[in-house]
Amino acid sequence: METPNEMRAKVTDKAATDADFRARLLSDPKAVLAQELSVTIPDSLTVEVHEESAETAHLVLPPDSKLSEGDLRAVAGGFERHEGFYNINW
User: Fold this and answer.
1) Where does residue 69 fall: left (phi above 0), alpha (psi -120 to 50 degrees), or beta otherwise?
2) Cα gap 90→17, rounded to integer Å
């Protein structure tokens, strides 16, 4: 099984060299990630792909500290299988 970093590298490397893949990833990230990584992404998970440029940088903040310990573990990073679906936490 690939690690989260390996999965991220696979997707970003392909997006850097394949313009069609990049466009599809930007327009429908859940479907493209599910297909590329051979996983099922639950409907309840929102996936956003942001494209940086010379004029725009993106900063991703950790979850609000008011979350429960279980919620924090779920979004802390990793790849988990739960009852027939995969949860990708980048």
Assistant:
1) alpha
2) 21
Task: Convert the pLDDT of each residue in 32-83 to its tens digit.
Answer: 999 999 989 999 999 999 998 999 998 888 777 776 666 666 655 555 544 4
What is the four-CA torsion angle of 81, 87, 89, 90, rounded to 10 degrees?
110
pLDDT tens track for 7-39? 999 999 999 999 999 999 999 999 999 999 998
Which range marks the domain in which residue 63 is found?
4-89
**AA letter at 41:** I
Cα-based distances in Å from 35 to 28, 68, 77: 11, 31, 20
